[in-house]
Input
Amino acid sequence: MRLKRKIQKSQIHLMSSVKETVLEINLAHLTHNYTVLKSKLRNTTKFLAVVKASGYGSDAIQVAKHLEKLGVDYLAVAYVGEGIALRKVGIQTPILVLHPQVVNFESLIEYRLEPSLYSERVLQQFIAVVTNSKQTAYPIHLKCNTGLNRLGFGTSQMEAVARLISKTKTIRVQGVFSHLAASEALEERAFTMQQITDFKTIVAQVIPILGDTPIVHQCNTSGIFNYPEAHFDMVRSGIGLYGFGNDSKYDLELRPIATLKSILSQIHTLESGETLGYNRGFTAIKTTKTATIPIGHADGIGRQYGHQKGFVTLHGKRAYIIGNVCMDMMMIDVTDIDCNEGDEVIIFGEEIKATTLAESVGTISYELMTSISPRIKRTFVGKI
Output
């Protein structure tokens, strides 16, 4: 009986120490990145932190809470539901919704979110909903299209839009903003400077009509680094907060906040001619040691990373992904790496950045980071 109890206790201990696939979020790195980005600004320039898409694949709630403690001026999300989730956990910081849909306007107002209004249709619909809910001077941001050609009022529309808004008491222009299309590409400097000039023209045109002094904002992360003349009243940063500056020299100043870790579940030895995985996606041409990792395309590591294109880091060495990535697993070549089942592997983090892994298959860090499945456990270190 005593032996049985000892075995049971031992099993419990072993189970509690088993490692798994996790996305580790370093909040101290978030603080560092925020501080670096803020250091590029004038003291009077406000800072808007973009926390859409689950905080670029991390955890929007924890990131937003941390940034609120740091004193961020604004938060931004893409959709109304994202903003509601932040309000429900007690976030009080103003939240800009970058791409609200008309069907969600009532909820937006209920949770005191600030919409980006980008076309005559959404402007008229929002005025109608605000009027119906008996709101006055509800804060909005006007989105101006200066060349990205994605969302926004055209330059020729802005005067009429401003005159329409000046005649209603239901809404108030809290901000006027635009979006730079190629601020990270210095070869596109002439285009970017024209965007900045056009935006200044729009602002000079509408402010006298509005009779207000809205927050003027245009710069994204790359704009913060490359175009200080366009910092205006506020800047917006997304990818920079998460550790990437869209340029290797700026990346050196920042620290990735997310590290995706997993373990080796099982090790196999293939003899020459044996195959591995679905559709026999890998054929050994010599004796090959492989390891299986519990993460797959359902977790955000897509099939494009297979066939020796993508890789992980194991004991400081690159181990290439072989065969087809499965839904919940992928296999790596560990022939030349001394390793054991249960050893930790790093998919991306500080050692091998998400940018490097993404570039191995012709994509960008944004796509890789925001693809990480919510079923992967998030853990947090470096809290203030």
Q: What stands out?
A: The domain at 27-244 is CATH 3.20.20.10 (TIM Barrel). Confidence is low (pLDDT under 50) at residues 1-18. The first strand starts at residue 22 and ends at 26.
